[in-house]
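Example complex used in Figure S2.
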Amino acid sequence: MSHSHTSATELLLFNQVTVALGKRQFGPFTLSIQPGEQVAILGPSGAGKSTLLKLLARELTPASGQAQFEQRSLHDWSLAELSRRRAILPQSHEVAFGLPVDLVIGLGRVARTYDPQLSSIVQQAAEQACAAHLLGRRFDTLSGGEKARVQMARVFAQLWDVEQGLLLVDEPLAALDPGLQFSLMEAIYTFASKRGHAILAILHDINQALQGFERLIFIKHGAMVGDYQTPHVTLPLLEALYEVRLASAVTDTGEVIVAPSLKQKISA
Amino acid sequence: MVKSRLFFSQQLTHRPAWLLMLVLILGVWAAATMGAVTITWSDWLAILQGDDEPLSGGAYVLWHLRLPRILFAVMIGAALALSGALTQGLFRNPLADPGLLGVTSGAACAAALTIVLLAGSGIEVPVALRYWLLPAAAFAGAVAVCFILDSVARWLTADSIAGLLLTGIALNALAAAVIGLCTYLATDEQLRSLTFWTLGSLAGANWALTTALLVALILAFWALRRLTHTMNALALGEAAAAHVGVNVRALRVRVIMLVAVLCGFAVAWCGMIGFIGLVAPHIVRLLVGPDQRRLAPLAMLVGAILLLLADTAARTVAIPAEIPVGIFTALLGAPFFLILLARMRRGS
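Predicted assembly (616 residues):
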């Protein structure tokens, strides 16, 4: 695939993007995301994963470098236009005032001035996110897992009738039990692959990243330190990223499972 | 299911709205009949016929004193309640109230400074201009406080209502000091109009003010049509609201301007009337839930009813004397505020 060809179809393109938060410098970040690609961002806590996501979400303005979304500078997009092409599933789930669940899900589409399909989309998005039984309840009476489902339904509603959009995910499932994590991750894959949405997800769970994503981006000390197709990711690369000794095992279904093997750090 | 494209005005046709409307109309009628002068049916007829003959007796009192005052109370109550609902939505917190946050005292402070400094400078201001000079000053004071609060709210950690309320306390204290200084510098005549700010009174009502306020309220209502649903998105938090396509900065500025106009008008013409902005949106939230599209118009109705109640009590409890209405709203509001705090503590 020639370089000119890839640049014509890129969904998102970052070229030497940097940002300064207080005294800390982040970047430079250089990456491109193709339509429909499934990319996980990995890295230790405080490495700058969320900062990268905020740059991608246009919450932060780059100090230097170019950020493009669909061949247009990210900052030329209006927020309303952008909201019809990309959605963000946040890390925290709180909503003020105990709004009803239906309204919270519908808020994903608040930027559309004419939206005749709203109520049916809210219903379908809720079903897709395993949250249909929560419709009619107040958001502040829900448990943590239920709140996550409703927020996911809101994001689904936002990109429900969109093709080849972008879904940014900020480790939303970290606090949930393994069964729920699995079914919600499945819901995200199903939703995104049906519409050709690209997924860019910050993840804490190495195994989730290895099994569910085709490409991994490593972030450490505020910069990108690796960008690999998942089959090329080796144990030493992961060990260097997290500075911890890892062990791998193969399950009887053939999946590779990675876990820390010792508490001590690798020396140098 | 989701009631998707409900227009703002359609919300008023829902059942609680009709009920509140009925209560308000009955309240207006009851309040009109209460007072030192007895009003009879023939007095109503006299003002309805609108003869060229000058009104006399009960009809005069009804048309020139009581009705403008009652309608003024209704509209000021609606304005205060709306500004409360908007402030709570903007700061994502049910305890945010223009009075507690110092917005109204900022407006009063600016108005008091205008009264004293203008007299000090020796400029003669025509009475007609005074109607607009004080609201303008009060508006400027309210805007200033709103923007200070807004930047403080952003500067402090997100959703820190404690920080916000403490800032409100500081601003309230500052405004009280400036008003106190004005009182010290004021002449006897100025002192009379100054005490008016601190206690709040609807005694200044007349048809001109009532009409002006009606226009302001209609404009605010118009501005609200599209604002309310985007304000719902603020409940998701600032970042998520931007993600779903809401221009949060523009929304904040518009809401702040609206709050400042409403508070500025109310304070300039009636002084500081507390707690309506806090209590009314709460009652509505209990009735119909927190959807801003329903909350804002219904809060206006409830605020109107509450202030009408308080003002009627202020007029009639100690006839012929009149008790400042701020005393009654505080009597009503302060216990309510404490109950609210207790509920929030239980809830968290």
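Confidence is low (pLDDT under 50) at residues 1-7 of chain A. Chain A has nine helices and twelve strands.
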